[in-house]
Design a protein that fits this description.
single chain; mainly alpha; Rhopdopsin 7-helix transmembrane proteins; two-stranded antiparallel sheet; 14 helices; 68% helix; globular; disordered N terminus; transmembrane; GPCR_Rhodpsn_7TM; P2Y4
Amino acid sequence: MASAESSLLTTLGPNSDPGNSEVELDCWFDEEFKFILLPVSYAVVFVLGLVLNAPTLWLFLFHLRPWDATTTYMFHLALSDTLYVLSLPTLIYYYAARNHWPFGTELCKFIRFLFYWNLYCSVLFLTCISVHRYLGICHPLRAIRWGRPRLAGLLCLAVWLVVASCLVPNLFFVTTSSRGDTILCHDTTRPEEFDHYVHFSSIIMGLLFGIPCVVTLVCYGLMARRLYRPLPGSAQSSSRLRSLRTIAVVLTVFAVCFVPFHITRTIYYMARLLEADCQVLNIVNVVYKVTRPLASANSCLDPVLYLLTGDKYRRQFWKLCSGGTPQPPRAASSLALVSLPEGSSYR
């Protein structure tokens, strides 16, 4: 490959891609870490994500029917994660080959599109689960009306279509370009369109991440307040503590996977757009690249949520892992982020 590709010093400038740190005359820095960090982290996500999500889809399809609303959301979340991890081998090759993309422009567009499609579908499916459990805990009568599996299925279909529609411009922004013998697959767009891409990306982040994030936080805050309040009769303290721990785990996973990536990406884009000091660009670039694998890690962490929050799923999963044959449940799945005792009249 070209000597510029093998150099430890890469730069940022008006004639380079803002999403793939390349050359500028007065801002040199080392980005060699990316060619180790991203292939290794994406390889780990691919293996763990496939191992965890493939049997999850199989259990949902054949051993956890009939579905309730929460199981419907979980299935679509697992489907989104599986589609994403199947796209990772191309990115693993790309970064291991030091930013060389031999697969064509169309596949470059699709892989970049798939990353954000999975990311924002995951955010919205978790938001749907949060609202559903909020209704079940705080407004149980409304939950009977709005928590039907058919309605949940229609809402999941709407999530897929809405997110895809919002991300269509990304297919036009993302492109490839040549640098010597190296073909780059840009994560953002060509330099002359970068300011427009930043505006588009900011709107998408507000609509598909900012608003759902606020809704999720409000739902879990109200649920936690309700669970801390004394309940008559059947609600046991152990069940209350399990539910509160589950809320804490979900919020922690949400914060680890989604929040750092969006914050650092926004700072990175703004620093590039405003032509910040070279030292600032160095720091922001490193932090942003480090948080990128965290956004992919939700594909591995979502199955952990299924294990923590669904007794029937957990029993079927461990039976599958031990070599047994999972048995179809005789009643609707009770998979839920917040669970109350089986015989609870409140439920």
